[in-house]
Amino acid sequence: MTSNILISACLLGHAVRYDGKGKPLHHPAIERWQGEGRLVTICPEMAGGMPVPRPPAEIENGASGLDVLEGRARVLEITGADVTDEFIAGANKALAFATQHGCAYALLIDGSPSCGSIAIYDGTFSGVKHAGHGVTAALLSRAGIKVFSHTDIDRLDTITQ
User: Fold this and answer.
1) Over residues 46-62, mean pLDDT
2) pLDDT in tens, 91-113
3) Measured between alpha carbons, how far is 84 from 11 in angstroms, rounded to an integer?
4) How far is it, in rounded angstroms, from Cα 159 to Cα 161?
5) In the chain, at which end, N or C, are there fewer CB atoms within 10 A of the end residue's CB?
C-alpha cells in the first residue's frame, strides 16, 4: 500500500506564507502524487491560528524546533511577540492530520521555523541559517514520519515509488 505525503501548503502555491505569498514547487512527482490523491496539504502556522500575512518569526538563540517542543526555546516574531504556543499548536495539528490521513512522509518548505528540515534561521532576523528542524518538522520526525525538504524531493520520489 502506498503512503500519503503531508505537504506544506505553500509548496502547492497557496498564499499562506508570512509574506502572504506561496512558494510553488514545480516537479513531476507533485503532479503524479496529486493525480494519485496522495497529497495531504497543511500550513502548520495557519493551523496554529496565525494570520496571513504575519510578521516574520524565528526560533530564538540559534535553537531548534526540538528545543521549542521541550520548553528550552521560544519562537519570536521580529516584533518581539512570542508565538511559541501557536507554533506548537500548529505542529500538533499537523501531526494529527498526518496520522489521520496515513502519511508516512512529509515534504516541507525548508528554512521555516515550522517546516524547516535541513536549515532554519538563527533567531537574529539577519538572514543567517543554521542546521536544524523547525517545530513541525521536529514533531513529525519524533513521531516517525520521514521529513523531506523541498530541495530533496527527488530522494522522496525515489523511495515512494
Assistant:
1) 98
2) 999 999 999 999 999 999 999 99
3) 23
4) 6
5) N
